Every structure is written in C-alpha cells, then in structure tokens.
Amino acid sequence: MADVKALAEQLVGLTVKEVQELADVLKAEYGIEPAAAAVVVSSEAGPAAVEEKTAFNVVLKNGGASKLNVVKIVKDLTGLGLKEAKELVDGAPKNVKEGVSKAEAEDIAAKLKEAGADVEIA
C-alpha cells in the first residue's frame, strides 16, 4: 500500500495545471468527478492557500459636480460613444472598467477623481 503521508505531500505540491490533469484522469479512468478531487486537494492546502486579488473593478459611485468632465474621461477610458458614456455616468453607481490590474485601476480612479467623480476600486 502507498505511503499516505508521501501521497498527501505530493498532492499539496501540485500546480493548478497538474490538479486539472489529475482531475481529468480521475474522471476518465475511475469515474470520479473533478469537483470532488479539487475539494480534496484544496482542503489539504489549508489556510495558507489564500489567493491574492489580481483583477480589480473601477466603480463610478457618483459623477460629481462637473459631470461633463467625468463623461469625457469615461468616454476616453472606455472607448464608448458620448451618449453611452453620459448614460454610464448618469446611471452611477456603475463599473467603468472591470478586471484590470491594480495599477491600472488606481490610474483610472485618479483621473476620474481629478475630474470630480466619486470612485471606488473593488
């Protein structure tokens, strides 16, 4: 019989790609669903396996006093037409950009705040 502790150490050391390959093998050859395999592997990793957030959303909470300037910046940042950018600003709170890096989100937020908007990075 296999050494269970050694097997556990190997499972904890798997990369995401290797976990996916393992899940595929377990499903194809043994009929075990991948979700069950992923739960076992993730529970072995313990609390140290906390993922750092890499994608951020820039949320326009309020257009502020000078909405026209905010509309222009939203138009430039998103590539929307003038009408669509105005609708986005008027419909706040709305996401201006989604899934961007932290640096890009901070840059966008700074531009919008400079124009007088109330912005949040989520």
UniProtKB/TrEMBL annotation:
Residues 56-121 form the Large ribosomal subunit protein bL12 C-terminal domain. One of its GO terms (biological process) is translation. Residues 5-49 form the Large ribosomal subunit protein bL12 oligomerization domain. GO terms for molecular function: mRNA binding; structural constituent of ribosome. GO terms for cellular component: cytosolic large ribosomal subunit. It comes from the Bacteria. InterPro entries: Ribosomal_bL12, Ribosomal_bL12_C, Ribosomal_bL12_oligo. The keyword Ribosomal protein applies. Keywords: Ribonucleoprotein, Ribosomal protein. Forms part of the ribosomal stalk which helps the ribosome interact with GTP-bound translation factors. Is thus essential for accurate translation. Belongs to the bacterial ribosomal protein bL12 family. Homodimer. Part of the ribosomal stalk of the 50S ribosomal subunit. Forms a multimeric L10(L12)X complex, where L10 forms an elongated spine to which 2 to 4 L12 dimers bind in a sequential fashion. Binds GTP-bound translation factors. This is Large ribosomal subunit protein bL12. The lineage of its organism: Bacteria, Pseudomonadati, Bacteroidota, Chitinophagia, Chitinophagales.
